[in-house]
Amino acid sequence: SQGTRHSPDIFSFSDHSLSTRSAVFEIPKPGRAHSSSFAHRSELRQAKRIVVKLGSAVVTRGDECGLALGRLASIVEQVAMLQNQGREMMIVTSGAVAFGKQRLRHEILLSQSVRQALHSGHSQLNDMSLPVLEARACAAAGQSGLMALYEAMFTQYSTCTAQVLVTNLDFHDDQKRQNLNSTLRELLHMNIVPIINTNDAVVPPPEPNSDLQGVNVISIKDNDSLAARLAVEMKADLLIALSDVEGLYNSPPGTDDAKLIDIFYPGDQQSITYGTKSRVGIGGMEAKVKAALWALHGGTSVVIANGTNPKVTGHVITDIVEGKKVGTFFSEFKPAGPSVEEQTEMARRSGRALASLHPDQRSEIICHLADLLTERKEEILAANKMDMDLAVSAAMLKRLSLSPAKLNSLAVGLRQIATAAQDSVGRVLRRTRVAHNLELEQITVPIGLLLVIFEARPDCLPQVSTLAIASGNALLLKGGKEAANTNHVLHQLTQEALSMHGVKEAVQMVSTREEVEDLCRLDKMIDLIVPRGSSQLVRDIQRAAKGIPVLGHSEGICHVYVDSEASIDKVIKIVRDSKCDYPAACNAMETLLIHRDILRTPMFDQIIDMLRTERVKIHAGPRFASYLTFSPSEAKSMRTEYGELECCMEVVDSMQEAVEHIHKYGSFHTDVIITENEDTAEKFLQQLDSACVFWNASSRFADGYRFGLGAEVGISTARIHARGPVGLEGLLTTKWVLRGDGHTVADFSEHGTMKYLHENLPAGQPLAGQRDSN
């Protein structure tokens, strides 16, 4: 728990019971001592005592007669799992009325059918009408069954439960309140899950509910109030309120401009519009917000989320506790800067302005950024030293390190991109005369908003920013915390350069504590994700980004094949460079394939000696190991990306077998053949299905800068769109522009007056009388 909490001084209802329509929430007196709630979602992992409130819409079926058993079972499984982790779980549940209504309806139908059969002498029944079932009677009939169901479900997970029924009087009477508090604490101490509900069998009936056709259903609003009161009374760390909506929206869900609010702060009430109530109950979202804010002020964090969505119900509670972006999180700690959603909207708006600039203006921005990298190098290197002083390993230090020479090299690459940017956006790829005075063009346009997630490589920031500027794309950057100081300075310089043409906000740096998985859920805002980092990072993003395309590769298992007709000098140079120049790079060699004829030759001995001199650890493939009396350690897998001074070595019988091996075990990144036989080399280049295929050249050449692209956003092994090192061209897509003069499809029908021409026109040649399409 987070320490001592104090319940608010006042939490009073009207003179009626908990199930009445109006509840009076009064804000605790100023200056009240209380511990604070969690400031960020990520801190919810620390929650020890948790209250889960299940609304009627979550517990009941759509017809409101009976329980949603599958949904309830998945919720019970999550609560039991958290309880077994050592947390203290409490459930505030609805459902007794619905469960009782189902039982009473069955009993009434059975009784009527028997009575009518006795009177009529046969089994043909006349029309039978069911009486309106009184809510308190339904609750009385359903409470025992509901509890028995919970008990049976929790027993499957070796978890014990206890039922606690309460009324409003239990909170007005100090002695009863103390008894309730003591009982709940004792149950939690014994590792028992208390299941709490209002004693609806004795409370006054609720006001009629017009949308339920006269059938009274206990209000879900009472349990919102009850859950908030209990959470604060029991000093709970977290209250999870599950309903049938995703969370809190800035306007009624379903309206055109409705947006889910990720974090809600006290004082934001004026910025939202409440809609209609839930399908069951008398309350609505306004009652939930009031209860949530009251609990928040009492020191309990609150999340309102959807407990009825079949896609997430099975993990909604555990996702919330793990700090994932689910529902609406209530927080008293409003960050100084904009939220990531606001940053995304700012980037998209400014990005459209960036795309509409003249190519010369975009080039001016890039050249200015290149100048800033060299003019302000002392400022950059000072920030970089702060990051390097905190580095935990030599490998991390190497990735973080910037130098004047590296900054100069970056500036040269940026100016290359500035030149290439002149004819990138708005370039006509195809021009067709569809019919007389009806011309069609296919032109290049930006993709939209890019999310680039990169780890401890600060030089990535200006490269990626420049490519985005050149291609007219908005950019959202998420950098690794290891390079936070350097990234901050480089981002400031980028925005300074963008300011010269009024598009400063087009490149945004996410500085809030956003999890990568949460960023990947912004599928309505982000058009493309580009991960730059470890294979694990890329795999995690590919898994999380279900609705957004991901450009990249998860592994760089690059092969070098030494053919029987290879030159020894070239072999030594290329193998050494491919493995030892930068072992952690994705284009470094991981598997060395040797033609069988090279074994036990001077060439083979020189290869082994060179690798030993460079301190490369060799792992033998199964076939290579079989040739040796004393072999190196056998490779655990032929699909290993070592990322260090290690590699696998295997033997093949031919170039064709090498191709088959690479297709089976490679990652389609970059693969190399070393041979003097041109025919063999050409067959290798043609047959191998990798993004980059080289002949007598190091695998380390697979890089946007070395390819002359100026820079790259990453290397893609995808089959569509961009493949290999992705530079400026890979960040563009196309749109079709059709210019007509009152044309309609009917003009080209069987009885129309026009005919299709479909004449291909030179793409670079403006059409006669046509205004400039750019």
Automatic annotation (TrEMBL):
Keywords tagged on the record: Amino-acid biosynthesis, ATP-binding, Kinase, Mitochondrion, Multifunctional enzyme, NADP, Nucleotide-binding, Oxidoreductase, Proline biosynthesis, Transferase
Pfam families for this protein: AA_kinase (PF00696), Aldedh (PF00171)
Transmembrane found in the keyword field: no
The protein's annotated pathway: Amino-acid biosynthesis; L-proline biosynthesis; L-glutamate 5-semialdehyde from L-glutamate: step 2/2; Amino-acid biosynthesis; L-proline biosynthesis; L-glutamate 5-semialdehyde from L-glutamate: step 1/2
SUPFAM superfamilies xref list: ALDH-like (SSF53720), Carbamate kinase-like (SSF53633)
Predominant subcellular localization, coarse grouping: mitochondrion
EC number(s) per entry: 2.7.2.11, 1.2.1.41
Protein's cellular compartments: Mitochondrion matrix
Limits of the Aspartate/glutamate/uridylate kinase domain: 48-306
GO BP term (any one): L-proline biosynthetic process
Location of the Aldehyde dehydrogenase domain: 340-620
Gene Ontology MF: a single term: glutamate-5-semialdehyde dehydrogenase activity
NCBIfam families given in the database record: P5CS (TIGR01092), PRK00197.1 (NF001221), proA (TIGR00407), proB (TIGR01027)
PANTHER family noted in UniProt: DELTA-1-PYRROLINE-5-CARBOXYLATE SYNTHASE, GLUTAMATE SEMIALDEHYDE DEHYDROGENASE
Described purpose of this protein according to its UniProt entry: Bifunctional enzyme that converts glutamate to glutamate 5-semialdehyde, an intermediate in the biosynthesis of proline, ornithine and arginine.
Family in the record: In the C-terminal section; belongs to the gamma-glutamyl phosphate reductase family.
Protein name stated in the entry: Delta-1-pyrroline-5-carboxylate synthase
Organism this protein belongs to: Astatotilapia calliptera
Underlying gene: ALDH18A1
